[in-house]
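Case study.
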Amino acid sequence: MRLHRGRRAAWRVTRGAATIGGMTDPHYTAPRLVALYDALNPFAADTRFYLDLAASTQAAHVVDIGCGTGLLACELAQQGHAVTAVDPSRAMLDVARRRPGAGQVAWIEGDATRLGALDADLAVMTGHVAQVFLDDAGFVATLVAAHAALRRGGKLAFESRNPVVSPWTTWTPQQSRRVIDDTQHGAVEIWQQLVDVQAGRVRFDTVYRFTACDDTVVSTSELRFRTQTELSEALRKAGFSEMEWFGDWSRSPVDETSRELIVVATRG
Ligand SMILES: C[S@@+](CC[C@H](N)C(=O)[O-])C[C@H]1O[C@@H](n2cnc3c(N)ncnc32)[C@H](O)[C@@H]1O
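After joint prediction, the assembly is written out as follows.
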């Protein structure tokens, strides 16, 4: 990761350590940004969806790929599921390991290829993890690793933002600005600025203004937006057969207005 100190204590943070399918985003590696992750991504309808899926499929063993700060992994563990959680970011895992229930989770630092054959019942990739894989080879390699971690008949569930509705059009300072009150850093003003949209890849800056110390951090990210057809093809290449699709967290079917492409795929 490179940090450029600019005028008036502004920092630019660019991409960090290499891992399967690309690089780890500064949001997940820079400790000051990682500390804000949970306030920006609290328990919500997506968390409920994956908890309900684990319960309804009676998944004894759940694998959480790209588990981040471990909100879902620890909730699952506290509800009696055996959980293996993997993430390449040590900073994210440091937060995860301090959560209630963390002692019941097997944490692995690395990408999905570290999992091996676990005979798991359910694998999940939540929080749009699927979109961090910019190239198809890295994405398919991760799906293959998820496939290997599952038992026959086990399920893989994840979501990806639907490019058909161009969700990035609201990634402007005016429409994305928000303020969070962080216990460590005080008030932090946050907004996004779209940089570039090309061939299914969206580049954008996230600006964090730490008002108490008058510091500004600009983190540049890139995400891949795959269509439902592209996601299906990648899943098939990795060996998944049946797929159930939803367009939102209340399990509506996918249509041209759906903001999410949520899939539950079965290992044949
Ligand atoms: C947006 S966060 C999602 C975290 C968590 N699943 C959630 O729902 O809040 C994306 C996560 O993907 C992780 N990640 C990045 N590259 C990865 C890779 N190659 N394999 C697995 N996880 C990866 C990041 O470290 C980060 O924790």
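Observations recorded in class. The chain has eight helices and 15 strands. Helices lie at 31-34, 37-40, 45-56, 71-78, 90-96, 136-149, 173-176, 228-237. We will return to this complex in the next lecture.
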